[in-house]
Structures are given as structure tokens and as C-alpha cells.
Amino acid sequence: MMPARAKPPANLTAECPELTTVAIADLGELLQVCVDDAAMYRACAARHKALSEWATQ
Length: 57
Fold this sequence. Notes:
The chain is mainly α and 57 residues long. 51% of the residues lie in helices and 0% in strands.
């Protein structure tokens, strides 16, 4: 039987945010949505990586 393991830190188990859905009015708005989505992805990927590292320590 495997020993009980501590729960992962809550900040590492947060769900990734939904991507923005907008009716794009212009290319400037499209660019901003893409930049915002990329930032959300990088933050979520960093949490996922940290959780993976925590799980394998």
C-alpha cells in the first residue's frame, strides 16, 4: 500500500481560465485578446509544471 501523500498546494491546482470569446471589432482588439490569452496560457502552464514537479518529488 502506498503511503498517504500530502495534498498539493491550492495555488497549483487552480483550474486554467477560459479563453476570451469576443466578437472582434478590429485588429487592435484581436491583438489584445491574443496577448491576454497568451499570458493566461503561460501562467497556467507554469502552474501545471510546478504541480508536475511537486508530484514527482
